[in-house]
C-alpha cells in the first residue's frame, strides 16, 4: 500500500524594521513536529529519506525538526510494509504540526494532515488554545463549560481562541446532538503565554477516542499594544473561536494538546524526540 498527498503549511515572515535583511529572514528554518496519531500500531517516520523515529507508537511527537523553507517529503512506514507519503511545503520561520492519522472512513488508509501553529503574541495572563478535528468520527460540536462554542466541525478543521489562563472543561459530541460525548469532558489547563494544541485520535464508534496535548510558548504582547482578535466562521462562536481548514489536505478528525496538563486529562504523556 502506497499513498501520497501534498501538504502546504507556512506563515508570512516580515523582515524586522531594525534593518534585518529579507534574505536572512527567508533563510530561517521552519520548526516541524511529526505526530503519530494512528492507534494500535507503530510507524517508522522519515523526513527527506532521513529516519526521525523508529517504530513510533501512537501519540508520539517527534520534533521540533528544523527544515529549510521549501518542499520536503514526509513518509510513514507501518504494519505489513504499508507506506504513507506526503509532500510538505513550509515557509521560513513557520511552526507546523504534521499529523499521521486515520481518515473519517475507518477502512481507508492513514494519511498526513498539516496544521500551522499560531505563535503570535497574546496579552499577559492569556493563552491560546486550538482544537483540531482528525479522528475517525463524523462532524462534531465542541463544548466548553457545557455550551456549544463551535458547531459542525468537520475533518481537517480546527478552532482557536485566546482566553484567560485557567482550566476549561472541554468535550466533543456528535454534531447537532446532546451527546453522549465521544471525548471528555476533560479539564484542560490553559497557561498564560502558551499555545495549547489538542488533537483527538481514535475511533468514535469504538469509543477509543483519545487526545494528545502539545504546549508551545508564545510571546506576551505589551499591555498597551493590541494582541489577538479571535473571530468565527459564519458567525459561529463569535468573539471566541476562529474556524480554520487545513490547507489543501483531505483528512480525518484529531484533537491534540502537548506537554503540560496530561495528568489532569488522565492521558499518557507523549514521548518526544529530536
Please give the structural blueprint.
Blueprint: E1 2-8, H1 22-26, E2 30-36, E3 43-47, E4 50-56, E5 60-67, E6 70-77, E7 83-90, E8 95-101, E9 111-116, E10 122-123, E11 126-132, E12 140-144, E13 147-153, E14 157-164, E15 166-174, E16 183-190, E17 194-201, E18 210-217, E19 220-221, E20 242-245, H2 262-265, E21 272-273
Parallel strand pairs: 1-7, 2-8, 5-21, 10-19, 11-17
Antiparallel strand pairs: 2-5, 3-4, 3-6, 6-7, 8-9, 11-14, 12-13, 12-15, 14-20, 15-16, 17-18
What would you say this structure looks like, in words?
With 274 residues, the chain is mostly beta strands. The chain has one domain. It has helices at 22-26, 262-265, and strands spanning 2-8, 30-36, 43-47, 50-56, 60-67, 70-77, 83-90, 95-101, 111-116, 122-123, 126-132, 140-144, 147-153, 157-164, 166-174, 183-190, 194-201, 210-217, 220-221, 242-245, 272-273. The strands form five sheets. It has a five-stranded mixed β-sheet, with no helix packed on it. A hairpin with an 8-residue loop joins β15 (166-174) and β16 (183-190). The chain is globular.
Amino acid at each position: 500500500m502506497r499513498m501520497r498527498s501534498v501538504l502546504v503549511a507556512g506563515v508570512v515572515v516580515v523582515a524586522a524594521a531594525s534593518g534585518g535583511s529579507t534574505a536572512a529572514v527567508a533563510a530561517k528554518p521552519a520548526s516541524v513536529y511529526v505526530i503519530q496519531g494512528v492507534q494500535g500500531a507503530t510507524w517508522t517516520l522519515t523526513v527527506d529519506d532521513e529516519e526521525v523515529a523508529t517504530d513510533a507508537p501512537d501519540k508520539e511527537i517527534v520534533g521540533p525538526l528544523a527544515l529549510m523553507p521549501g518542499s520536503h517529503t514526509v513518509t510513514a512506514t507501518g504494519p505489513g510494509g504499508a507506506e504513507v507519503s506526503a509532500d510538505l511545503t513550509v515557509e521560513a520561520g513557520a511552526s507546523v504540526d504534521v499529523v499521521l492519522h486515520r481518515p473519517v472512513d475507518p477502512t481507508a488508509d492513514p494519511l498526513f494532515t498539516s496544521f500551522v501553529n499560531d505563535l503570535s503574541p497574546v496579552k499577559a495572563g492569556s493563552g491560546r488554545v486550538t482544537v483540531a478535528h482528525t479522528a475517525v468520527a463524523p462532524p462534531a460540536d465542541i463544548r466548553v463549560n457545557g455550551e456549544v462554542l463551535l458547531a459542525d466541525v468537520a475533518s481537517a478543521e480546527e478552532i482557536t481562541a485566546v482566553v484567560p489562563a485557567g482550566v476549561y472543561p472541554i468535550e466533543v459530541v456528535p454534531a447537532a446532538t446532546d451527546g453522549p460525548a465521544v471525548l471528555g469532558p476533560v479539564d484542560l489547563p490553559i497557561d498564560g503565554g502558551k499555545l495549547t494544541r489538542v488533537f483527538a485520535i481514535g475511533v468514535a464508534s469504538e469509543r477509543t477516542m483519545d487526545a494528545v496535548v502539545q504546549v508551545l510558548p508564545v510571546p506576551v504582547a505589551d499591555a498597551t499594544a493590541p494582541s489577538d482578535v479571535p473571530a468565527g466562521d459564519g458567525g459561529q462562536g463569535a468573539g471566541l473561536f476562529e474556524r480554520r481548514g487545513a490547507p489543501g489536505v483531505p483528512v480525518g478528525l484529531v484533537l491534540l494538546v502537548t506537554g503540560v496538563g496530561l495528568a489532569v486529562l488522565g492521558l499518557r504523556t507523549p514521548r518526544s524526540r529530536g
